[in-house]
Amino acid sequence: MNLKQFTKEHDPKNLIEEANHALDSLKKSPSISGHIIAVFTLLLLFVSLLWEKESKRIANSTNSSKPPSQDPNRPKNNRPKGVNKPGGQPGHPGETLRQVPIPDIVHRITVDQTKLDPNHNWRLVDQIKRQVFDIKINRQVTEYQA
Fold it and tell me: Which parts of 29-98 fold into alpha helices (H)?
């Protein structure tokens, strides 16, 4: 019978208490030699140390409040480190939000031409449109036109 089978049938805390009680009785008995008491004391110490070690080995992060980072017996990840860095890999087609033809809200931004360079070092171009997608329960797209 191994220690696991034995501890399933007997509560080890009670066993240690009973062994301590038996040791006290042996010490009180005048017919028992000191050698037997010493051997019994060493045996009791050995069993209590064995139980302490076994109880620590049995308790792990899955069956106790011990966090996984402090569990010395947790399963290790033996997966080899990958070659690729995290994120999108070269050659992988990207995905992006496309502009919608009819946004929900349109803000027209007018440029005050009096604030621009008076030497006309600027030129008029077509409108530049940027859209911001705000995700809510209902989609609302805001378009900014300049």
Answer: 34-58
